[in-house]
């Protein structure tokens, strides 16, 4: 529990104040309390922060302020965010303390967006992190597929991809990735993690504070893109060892998950 002091010098329970503001539908007060709590957290840790960490903490406050500016105080039940990217960035800013405790701080140079991964619309990859060397301005780029619209699921996938940015893409889903993932409360197979109650212990309050994700699931339908070929075999590649092969779409549709045929690999095969 994060505590500060009020004008009377008494300790403040920010969690209770935020909960009361949400229940009352007073989103203007909620925005003010959120920012005051963030400032209190920075003040409490200031003596322990390095210059780089202090810069990141200041950036967190800036991101929280930008998120609060998007709030429409006149509509208590309206979503806090107008854009999906605003919501994703706000979750990332609020998740930074959890990543720091897990021993792998989130880099500052990271961007999030909803969009198809490199495997395309028919690919089975639901999230992807591109390294900072791929971006012209040296930024990690994270994409969450538009077929997801459940806030908890989206935040869980985002957490997975943020771990890649924090520990480095070169470690893939190895021991270093697994150590941070487990510390943050992700479970299951490391190439396809799921959230657990340990993750919910720190993330559920963030999700409640953020409000609804301003996004609706994008399913199959008519688009302006060219008609996809159906009469050819598709390339399939293991996301861990790089093993590749080609197969027909009907075999991909018949399996929820394709495990790598290499007995020594724990990867998942993804279609292009």
- Tell me the radius of gyration: 21 Å
How many separate helices?
8
Structural class: alpha+beta
Q: How big a fraction of the residues is strand? A: 5-15%
Largest beta-sheet characterization: 4 strands, antiparallel
The end-to-end distance, rounded to whole angstroms, is: 45 Å
Low-confidence parts: 69-78
Give the topology, please:
Elements: H1 14-24, H2 27-45, H3 51-69, H4 84-101, E1 110-114, E2 127-130, E3 140-144, H5 151-167, H6 175-184, E4 186-187, E5 194-195, H7 197-210, E6 234-238, E7 244-247, H8 249-254, E8 258-259, E9 268-271
Parallel strand pairs: 1-3
Antiparallel strand pairs: 2-3, 4-5, 6-7, 6-9, 8-9
Helix pairs in contact: 1-2, 2-3, 3-4, 4-5, 4-7, 5-6, 5-7
Overview of this protein structure:
By secondary structure, the protein is an alpha+beta fold. The protein has eight helices and nine strands. Strands 7-6-9-8 form a four-stranded antiparallel beta sheet. It has a three-stranded mixed beta sheet with strand order 1-3-2. A two-stranded antiparallel ribbon has the order 4-5. Helix 1 runs antiparallel to helix 2 (27-45) and helix 5 crosses helix 6. The relative contact order is 0.10. Residues 69-78 have low confidence and may be disordered.
Task: Name the features.
272 residues, alpha+beta, 4-stranded antiparallel beta sheet, 3-stranded mixed beta sheet, 9 strands
Question: Brief description of this entry?
Answer:
This protein is of the alpha+beta class. It is built from eight helices and nine strands. Helix content is 42%, strand content 12%.
């Amino acid at each position: 529990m994060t505590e500060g002091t009020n004008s009377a010098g008494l300790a403040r329970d920010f969690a209770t104040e935020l909960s009361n503001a949400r229940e009352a539908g007073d989103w203007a007060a909620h925005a003010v309390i959120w920012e005051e709590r963030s400032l209190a957290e920075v003040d409490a840790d200031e003596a322990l922060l390095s210059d780089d960490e202090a810069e990141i903490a200041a950036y967190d406050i800036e991101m929280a302020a930008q998120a609060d500016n998007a709030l429409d105080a006149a509509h208590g039940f309206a979503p806090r965010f107008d854009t999906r990217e605003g919501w994703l960035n706000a979750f990332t800013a609020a998740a930074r303390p959890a990543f720091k405790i897990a021993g792998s701080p989130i880099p500052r140079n990271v961007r999030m967006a909803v969009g198809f991964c490199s495997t395309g619309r028919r690919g089975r990859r639901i999230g992807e992190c591109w390294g900072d060397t791929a971006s012209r301005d040296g930024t990690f780029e994270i994409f969450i597929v538009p077929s997801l619209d459940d806030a908890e699921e989206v935040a869980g996938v985002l957490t997975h991809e943020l771990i890649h940015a924090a520990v480095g893409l070169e470690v893939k889903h190895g021991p270093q990735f697994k150590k941070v993932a487990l510390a943050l409360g992700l479970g299951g197979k490391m190439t396809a993690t799921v959230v657990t109650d340990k993750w919910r212990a720190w993330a559920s309050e963030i999700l409640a504070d953020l409000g609804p994700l301003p996004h609706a699931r994008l399913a199959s339908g008519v688009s302006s893109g060219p008609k996809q070929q159906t009469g050819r075999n598709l390339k399939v590649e293991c996301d861990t060892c790089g093993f590749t092969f080609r197969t027909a779409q009907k075999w991909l549709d018949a399996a929820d998950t394709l495990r790598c045929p290499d007995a020594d690999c724990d990867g998942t095969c993804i279609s292009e």
